[in-house]
Amino acid sequence: MGTAVAGQEGWQEDVFRVLRQHDVKHVVYVPDTSHSTAIRLAEADKEISAIVLTTEEEGIGYLAGAWLGGERGALLMQSSGVGNCINMLALQSCVHFPLLMVVGMRGDWAELNPWQRPMGQATEKALNLMHVMTWHVSDPTDVVPVLHGAATMAFNGDHACAVLLGQRLIGGQQWVK
Fold it and tell me: What is the Cβ-side half-sphere exposure of residue 10, based on CA atoms within 13 angstroms?
């Protein structure tokens, strides 16, 4: 996993703090630079199970099980992983358990990797088609209120919610040819 984008530690720590404020006990993820600080903090927290996934859709089943066991969790992933989750999102749509996803966006602003663009451009629409409410964040000052609102809706209303951390927030990608 890479390191956090320079100057971005503040909002990444905010992501973790909001999850803790909402009593999240499970953080499931596929390693990703945009979530590196939140992942590192979750791994260091003895009250949180930080679970590395082999593919993002596993996280939806895992979080359904955590909910059945009376605990809250969040799925951290990159926008390219949303495509892997589409079929599994039917589980939340049918069962209505709280599902909170924090998505590091790729394929939008300053993206140099052409393989990231298709899913990056389709992420929000795909989530909305699966009845997931979405909010896009590009300003570090919006991370806390937007994530807090999404977590409140997910955990208090059994909704599927996704906060999309825009590429302007997480930083443009560097591609060396």
Answer: 8
